[in-house]
Amino acid sequence: MSVNNTGRWAFEPAAIPSLPIRGSDALFPVHRIYCIGRNFAAHAIEMGHDPNREPPFFFQKNPDNLVTDGKFPYPDKSDDVHFEIELVVALAKGGKNIPIAQALEHVYGYGVGLDMTRRDLQGEAKKLGRPWEIGKAFDASAPCTAIIPASEIGHPANGRVWMRCDDEQRQEGDLNQMIWKVPEMISYLSDYFTLAAGDLIFTGTPAGVGAVKRGNVLVGGVDGVTELTVTVV
Predict the structure, then answer these.
(1) Taking Cα atoms as reference points, which of 65, 85, 199 lies closest to residue 136?
(2) Domain coordinates in residue numbering, the chain
(3) Is 4 a residue whose pLDDT tops 50?
(4) What integer pLDDT is reported at residue 140 of this predicted model?
(5) For 8-63, how does the pLDDT look when each residue is reduced to its tens digit (9 = 90+)?
(6) Do 91 and 195 meet the contact criterion of CB atoms below 8 Å apart?
(7) Which DSSP string do the residues of the chain spell out, in sequence order?
(8) Which residues, other chains included, contact 192 with Cβ-Cβ below 8 Å and sequence gap of 6+?
């Protein structure tokens, strides 16, 4: 459909949010972004919650929250912005009620992302029983790497998850410490949403999250997947 020729749209639609794919000129079009909360026991404890295996819960970021240029602009209306390093799962196909045993068949590949969080605004929302979007789904809140196809790296179930801020080690864990594993997350989400090709899942962060300030350089990664470098500007 030609937007300019048909005149169907009231104005030019926004570009489709996308991520690069390592080793390819093609782009990965992003449909939705799901993020799991408190998926590492140590992080649940540091946030003041019970680390036991309670049912998972998810929140969403917007596809246009993604940034891939290595820069994170410090947002307005917050004085306490935190980093959270995470494995990102990229889906090649979706569906509903996906069995756990078949979940990995839906994965296109993996990346590494930051769930940047306006912690002060999130905390205020929690106290008032309100949604978290103001603390989680703000502009540029999802720095992310290129997607690495699963055909190249398989489906990682183990691997160090780590983050340094200005060369100081801040976060360290392992994928095998996730309370809910990738197949379980895909299956659970598909019971409540119709998953689709292009969906991303941010899979949770280990303990050690902390505040950033302008000028900080964040370097983190998942061993066996890739690394991400982001400068706070």
Answers:
(1) 65
(2) 17-232
(3) no
(4) 98
(5) 999 999 999 999 999 999 999 999 999 999 898 765 555 555 667 678 999 999 99
(6) yes
(7) --HHHH--SSSPPPPPPEEEBTT-S-EEE---EEEESS-BHHHHHHTT---S-PPP-EEEE-GGGEE-SSEEPPPTT-S-EEE-EEEEEEES--BSS--GGGGGGGEEEEEEEE--EEHHHHHHHHHTT--SHHHHSSTT-EEB-PBEEHHHH---S--EEEEEETTEEEEEEEGGGBSS-HHHHHHHHHHHS-B-TT-EEE----S--EE--TT-EEEEEETTTEEEEEEE-
(8) none
Confidence band of 208 (pLDDT split at 50, 70, 90): very high
Query: Phi-psi bin for 101: left (phi > 0), alpha (psi -120 to 50), beta?
Result: alpha
Phi, psi of 107 (to 5 degrees): -90, 130
Token pair for 57: 């819960």
pLDDT in tens, 108-140: 999 999 999 999 999 999 999 999 999 999 999
CATH class of 17-232: alpha beta
The pTM is what? 0.93
Pairing outcome for strands 66-67 and 142-143: parallel
Q: Does residue 140 come out as left (phi exceeding 0), alpha (psi in the -120 to 50 range) or beta?
A: left
Read off the pLDDT band of 6 (50, 70, 90). low
